[in-house]
Amino acid sequence: MKNLQLFDLDLIDNIISPEDFNQTSLMSPATxxxxxxxxxxxLIIEDETPAGEALKLMVKxxxxxxxxxxxxxxxxxxxxxxxxxxxxxxxxxxxxxxxHEVLVSDLMVLRSDLHAFxxxxxxxxxxxxxVNVLENYGLRHCLVLDREHHHIRGVISSSDIAxxxxxxxxxxxxxxxxxxxKVIHG
Length: 186
Known about the structure:
The protein is an alpha/beta fold. The chain is 27% helix and 19% strand. A four-stranded mixed beta sheet has the order 1-8-7-6. Strands 2-3-4-5 form a four-stranded mixed beta sheet. Residues 169-174 have low confidence and may be disordered. It holds the Pfam family CBS.
């Protein structure tokens, strides 16, 4: 048995993260900026969750987007803080709903309205390629498909790109790919 020693933390004031070791640039592989659901569990929410409850949960956990699933585990779409905000909820209430009746399913972006990257193409692309393509869409999130296996493989987030590129973007702002593009390209 080794005799391990414990040390005081009084002179330590920071915590490292993977970004401290992995330098991501515009020429890095696009897979460096993508959250792979083979490595990280997808953040999901049920479509019948009350919108106000979902918003509180997302704000509390600092999550900006979740994948919406039905009770039967069918992929329905996505919900983000862009769609799920107090103003949108109040608008739904003004149309005659009670607050608790406004559900995630009422505000989500339907799967039929979404676009996604193909994982195989992403493997041969750079971060710059991704930012340039998505700049025109003004999105904050984009799903990644594994078309060969017919499933959602992951997600790309503008806030993740900004963080990994060490861009001076306020994490509390509504960061979009368009905003990331403007910071990168002056």
